[in-house]
Amino acid sequence: MTTQAEVFNQLKEILVDQLDVDVDKITLATNFKNDLELDSLDVFEVIDHIEDTYDIEIDADTDSGLETVGGLVDYILKATAK
Fold first, then answer.
1. How far is CA 46 from CA 1, 25, 31, 41, in A?
2. Whole-angstrom Cα distance, residue 77 to residue 73?
3. pLDDT tens digits for 7-18?
4. DSSP assignment of 2-62, as one string?
5. Ranges for the Carrier domain (predicted)?
């Protein structure tokens, strides 16, 4: 079973690789739009990479709670636990 720390670290790597953001800016409380200033294309690229990495489907339009890194980590943990 994957742990929260493992998913968080993987997500940090994805964000740094995909968006060239400073790893020190990424915490569980980090808001994608407010703190990392991601636009919709950035969000799409990150979600696409996460879906490929974890073999899950994410509907960013309807899934609330995905505004923060922690929310996305929780979502990934739930989706991969099934």
1. 23, 16, 14, 9
2. 6
3. 999 999 999 998
4. --HHHHHHHHHHHHHHHH---GGG--TT-BTTTTS---HHHHHHHHHHHHHHHT----TTT
5. 5-80
Q: Which of 24, 39, 59, 61 is catalytic?
A: 39
Taking the CB of residue 8, how many other CB atoms lie within 10 A of it? 19
**Could you tell me which CATH class the domain 4-81 is placed in?**
mainly alpha
**What is the pTM for the complete model shown?**
0.88
| 42 catalytically annotated | no
